[in-house]
UniProtKB/TrEMBL annotation:
The lineage of its organism: Bacteria, Pseudomonadati, Bacteroidota, Flavobacteriia, Flavobacteriales. Residues 1-18 form the signal peptide. Pfam families: Por_Secre_tail. Keywords: Signal. SUPFAM superfamilies: Fibronectin type III. It comes from Bizionia hallyeonensis. The keyword Signal applies. This is T9SS type A sorting domain-containing protein. InterPro entries: FN3_sf (IPR036116), Ig-like_fold (IPR013783), Secre_tail (IPR026444). Residues 314-382 form the Secretion system C-terminal sorting domain.
Amino acid sequence: MKKITLFLFLLSISFSFGQVVLDENFDAGLSTPTGWSNTDLAAGGVWTFETGGEAPFFGAANDVLYSAAGFSGIYAMFNSDAYGNDSAPENAALISPAFDCSALTVIKLTFNHLILTEYGGEGYVEVYNGTSWVQVAVYDETTVPAPDYFTLGAVTIDVSAELAGVTNAQVRFRWVGDWSYYWTLDNVMVQQPTGSAPNPVTTPTPADGAVDVFVDPTNGDYLVAFDWSPATTGDAATSYDVYLGDAANNLNLLGNTPNDMVNITGMDYSTEYFWQIVAKNLAGEAVGSSTWSFTTEEDPLLSVDTNTLELFSVYPNPVNTNVTIKTTLNINAVEIINQLGQRVLLVNEANIVNNTINVSTLSNGIYFMNISAEGKKQTIKIVKE
C-alpha cells in the first residue's frame, strides 16, 4: 500500500473559549515574550522567534508553517541544524509565566507545532504542578517514527490531573538534540473549556459501501476527496480526527483538520478502505462515530499498451544518494514532489548527467518523480532512505 497522507489542509483551530489562564501567540516581537523564560540548560543554544512561515527541509520558499501547521505571524523555533556541528548538546526550555488554575477542574493545553525529530531531536511538553515538572507529551524518533520523522498541526492535551487546583502552574517546551533538525511552536493556550462534546458527523463522501471511487493521480499524488456533514444537534465541533485503514478494526489516525473535507494522498487502485471521522472540541470528542467503507476504481492505465507504460524506469529504488533513469529518450526535466504536493527538487536537461539525479539532500520518505522527455511524461514513486 502507498504511504497515506492528509493533503494540504489548514490545521489551526478556532475554539469557543472558556476560562483562559494562558494565551500566547508570540506576535509581540522577535524576542522572548514578556514573562516567559528562554533557558539554555546545556550551553547548546536557545529558542529564537521567526516569521515568514518557511519550514526548513520542506523545499525552497515554502509556507508550510502557515499553510499546513496553522501558524500565523511570529512563532518560536529551536533550530538545531542552524547551530551546526558544534559538539554542544542542546537542552533548551521555553517556559511560560506562572498562571492560576486554582478555580479550574477541567484544563486543556493547546498549541500548534511542527517538529522534525530525525538525528536524535526530541521535544518534551512539560507542566509545573506546583512542586515539580511533569511530562505530558514527548516527540522523538519512537513517537514520530520513520520514514517522515515529522508531525505538525494542532495539539490538545488534557492536563487536568496535573494542574487542577494549582495556583502557580506553568508550561514549558523543552528541546533536546545535537545538530539535529528543529521544533517550531505557536498559539499556546491553557483554558477550561465550556459546553459539551459534539455529536457524530453524518453524510460521508465517499458514501458507505461506494465502489469505483475516483482516484486522482495528478502530480503522482493518487488522492481521494473526502467530505462529511457536521452534526446539526449539540455543541459545534472545532476539529475532526481523520482515521483510515484496511479493516474496520484496523484504523490509523492520519491527522486532525478544522475543515469538513480533506484530500488524502497515496491511495491505491482496486482497494477497499475503511474510514472514520471523529468530531472534537475542547470539551471532548463525539461518541459513537460510524466507520464507513468504499472501494477505489481500477487503474485506468491497465488497458494502455504496455510499451507506453515502460518508457521510463528508475534504479535503485529505494535510493540513498543517486537515482538513475533508464530510458531511450532524451530527458528534458525531472521534478520531484513530496507527499504534501510541494516541489522539492527540479533538475533541467543541462544539469542531468548520464540520466542520474542526486537526491542526497532530500529527507527520508516517499516522493513522486515527474519525468519529461521528448514530449512524453511519466510519474514514478521513489523511496529515499
